[in-house]
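Exam revision sheet. Question 4 asks you to relate a sequence to its structure. Input first:
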Amino acid sequence: MRLFLELRPIDSLLLSLGGSYVGESYRGSDFSNSEAKLENYWLFDLGINYQLSKSANLFGGVDNLLDEDYLSAAFGSGLYPGEGRSVRAGLRFSF
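Answer key, structure tokens:
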């Protein structure tokens, strides 16, 4: 399940907050569904976009805002942790 909230306090600024919920799941190799399930988790992301001009846009964001520890997958005895917090920013030009 994914939920989003977007706010535009002024015409040139867009703020967004997103949340993703992943419920309990079985390991990819557990065909009989008899092993322990992977735990459920929530992830929250934050984004910002600022229109500097008609051709320039400043953007940024934080994924996994709360730095949640979670398993994204499991196969056999292999456990695959999800990504931790990450930050991105940039400047976009259009011609």
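Marking note for examiners. The first strand starts at residue 2 and ends at 10.
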